[in-house]
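Fill-in record for Putative inner membrane transporter YedA.
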Amino acid sequence: MTRYRNIGLFVVLAAVWGSAFMAIKAGLDFFPPVLFAALRYDVAGVVMLAYALYATDSPVPRGRAEWTEIAIGAVFLIAAYHALLFIGETDPTVTSAAAAVIVSLSPVLTTGFARLLLPSERLTALGVVGLLLGLVGVAVLSELDPSNLLAGATVAKLLIFGAAAAFALGSVLTRRVDSEMPIETMEAWSMLLGAGLMHVASVGLGESIGSVDLTVQSVAALAYLSLAASALGFLIYFDLLARLGPIEINLVSYVAPVFAALAGWAFLSEVPTSSTVGGFALIFLGFVLLKRGAIRRELRYRFGDGAGAAD
């Protein structure tokens, strides 16, 4: 039963995170992009803080290390990632599936940053090939034209690539901080501080709450992103991370684009292009090459005699 429960939660997580790209695209018709992202995490942060108060004995950060980890999470994982993602998705030619595929590069970039910034990590020759394949995948998806880098949706897709890079860098930097803070506390305070930073950026960009168009659709998009994709999604993520480990949970990034494509097609009449499919294949291949050792050990442990866990 536990195995079926894990599979079910994995599919639910991929579905809510994948369809979130469609909800972002739909909500951007009614909200300025950075303000939209900030409002999302106003709501999600309050919900996560309430959960941290319920689930942990340390709902309030203490000490320099814990506040440093929260600052990194707020700047990179929440503010930079979501501001760039939401701005990138304002381009009408960037489909939900394309955005999800670019974001699926995050595990590849996380490994690359870890090799550069964590002394215990090294990047082999085959690992370099995997990293480069992931970057080529983004280039294919973005349909880069060297003679005109500002053509089409290239800039928007590069902004989303910047979002994925910010998330990956933030993930690695948090690992460098020696903090034993509960993950629920870190997420709650990072969301709230990140939302505050995005409100400041929104004002700096000239966005106004007066330009928000409150309709059934806009409220539904905001509620879905705040409650389903953020609050519920992270709760499922925490549970599966403890049960499955980082390798299997990383695979959510490669299932989510499928749900993004289905949701975009069902609600926004979006049709994935061949460059989206080709870019996804290259990014996933890059991930497999970078994580080949960990994947091999995981497969041995899951389907062999368990010896791979000690390799």
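KEY FINDING: The chain has one domain: 2-310.
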